[in-house]
Amino acid sequence: MKHKQLAALAACMLVFPMGAMAASVTTNVPLDSVYYSYIEKLSGMGYISSMPNGAKPYSRMEMAKWVQEAQKKEAEKPMPAYLQSQMQALENYLAPELAALQGEKLDNPIKIRTVTAEAAYNHSDTMRYGYRNIKAGWQPFGENRNGYSYGRDGNIMANVEVSGNLNNRVAVSLRPRFSYDKDNDGSASLEEGYIKTSLGIWHIEAGKQALTWGQGASGHLLLSNNMKPLTTLQLHFDEPKQVGGFFRFLGKADFHAFYGMTDKDRRDDAASWGRTDYDDAGLLGLRLDITPTSYFTFGASRVSMLGGKNHGLSKSDWKHWVTGTNDSQQQDRWNDIAGFDFRLRLPGVQFYGEAYGEDQAHGMPCEWAYRGGVYLPRLTKDGSWDMTLEMAQTNEVWYQHGTYQNGWTYSGDIMGDAMGRDARKYYGAVKHYLPNEAYLGMYYQRTQMNRSSCLDCTVDEAALMGQRKLAANTYLRGTLGLARVRVAGQDNAYHRFATASVQWMY
After folding, report:
1. 370 has pLDDT over 50
2. Helix axes 81-93, 35-44, angle to 10 degrees
3. How is residue 42 annotated by DSSP?
4. Residue 8 has pLDDT above 60, yes or no
5. Do the Cβ atoms of 31 and 311 come closer than 8 Å?
6. How would CATH label the architecture of 2-505?
7. φ, ψ for residue 345 (rounded to 5)?
8. What's residue 4's pLDDT?
9. For residue 132, is pLDDT > 70?
10. Cα 453 to the chain's mean position, in Å?
11. pLDDT, tens digit, for every residue of 71-124?
């Protein structure tokens, strides 16, 4: 599958209009922004004709184009009050980009975009649980938070987003984070920070940034923001391109590539388990998204962990990597995960899924994991209630490897779905939307980990969540949850969790 993917990438690259006018460079919308759910809702309600693909984050300009589509649709199909308020918020947030789409010069100077202050209470006897055979951990309510772990009892956190344009071709973003709790003490870090520019139809990004590839609601099998943002060099199209020539039936295509380096202490982490690994292992990712119609998008991805200190690849190794040949003769020189994801949008319902394979046998992935889900954006006529249902499953060797024996991890977290190997997850969420950008919702998630082991673990997690707009640019958000963890049939451990955050938008 891997060499076929690469061939498809090369073929598509040959038929794009390479001389096309480049779009303005803008920063990306952080993955934890509420605006992603607003775009998803507009898409589900039929106000966006284009199909967002599975490579996130989206740029501000991409979102602005979808808002522009929704504005045109609104003229013939009035929005309910709750959706109007979401639309208005997007218009205010993306005002510079919307003006640029109308022919004005992009005017988006570097400034403070958001300030968020959060207080959390995490009542539990155990801060983090470990996985079998790898030095990494997880905690209830701690998935997909850019690698941040809540301490026990009280937590205080704050982050600031500073971003904007130096000019029409250079954009920068900085997002420092401050936190304090009794387990981690006080810490300050640059959670995200990158510079972005363009070269023809290509956008180039360098720095730390959270990425997700896939279509999952509760996680992503391949690449997620369960880990802290990885420092990478990225290359991707400035916007999806219409495929020409013989391949025009493929519609629009989007290409992403990145390279980064993992931990400097992978060897020591593995040694603590009596295993081996290599420091500074590289992470190379390739992704091609194809959107042949306005209701279907398909993504093919390959991410490889390779190289590392005293483990560099030779010219021959790279040749085998390109063809997807990695067997005992090459001593398993890299760790691959490759496969595909999709989303099908029909009136009143969306179906999505992921299927990825670990490693390969004669060029084909051989150990598969799956995710499937359905999004119902219109439980009621006006869409003020919606629902998401999802199931995911991995096998016994998932996220494991014979050469990189600390597995598919970075900085103490799994880079894909936090459920880990030999696991099954069930997820369901319901939301009710109110005017003035308010909503109430709840979710339930059951995760069965290490299912075939005597050390199996079952986690039942449920939470209420909500948002209220306090003022023109001020939001109050909260979560109240309870989790039960049962390991190897032993007594239940209960985790009580609550957060309240205030966010100021500028």
Report:
1. yes
2. 130
3. H
4. no
5. no
6. Beta Barrel (2.40)
7. -110, 115
8. 46
9. yes
10. 29
11. 999 999 999 999 999 999 999 999 999 999 999 999 999 999 999 999 999 999
Paired sense of beta strands 212-213 and 202-209, if any? unpaired
Amino acid at 258: F
Range 397-418 average pLDDT: 94
φ/ψ of 31, rounded to 5, equals -60, -30
Tokens 């003769």 belong to 329
Give dist(CA 166, CA 172) in Å, integer.
7
Nearest Cα neighbor of 497 from 55, 191, 145, 249 is: 145
**What's the pLDDT tens digit per position in 32-50?**
999 999 999 999 999 999 9
Q: Is the pLDDT of residue 11 over 60?
A: no
If you search the block for the tokens 């690994």, which residue do you land on? 277
Supply 373's token pair.
């889900």
State both tokens at 12.
Answer: 């598509």
pLDDT tens digit string along 277-295?
Answer: 999 999 999 999 999 999 9
SS (H, E, C) 324-393: CCCCHHHCCCEEEEEEEEEEEEECCEEEEEEEEEECCECCECCEEEEEEEEEECCCCCCCCEEEEEEEEE
**Residue among 281, 283, 313, 286 nearest 301 (CA):** 286
pLDDT (0 to 100) of residue 490: 84
> Are residues 39 and 63 in contact, defined by beta-carbon separation less than 8 angstroms?
yes
Q: Is the pLDDT of residue 21 over 90?
A: no
Structure tokens at 458: 């079952």
Q: Hey, what are 137's tokens?
A: 């951990």
Burial (CB count within 10 angstroms: exposed 0-12, middle 13-18, buried 19+), residue 28: buried
- Beta carbons of 58 and 29 less than 8 angstroms apart: yes
Q: Which tokens is 232 given? A: 């990478």
- Residues 263 and 243: their CA atoms lie apart, in Å, by 38
Q: Sketch the domain layout of the chain as residue ranges.
A: 2-505
Q: How many CB atoms sit inside 10 A of residue 185's CB?
A: 9
The residue ranking higher by pLDDT, 326 or 467, is: 467
Q: Rounded to whole angstroms, how far apart are CA atoms 187 and 177? A: 8
The span from the CA of 506 to the CA of 497, in Å, is 29
Determine if residue 142 is left, alpha or beta; phi over 0 gives left, psi from -120 to 50 gives alpha, anything else beta: alpha
The per-residue pLDDT for 273 is: 85
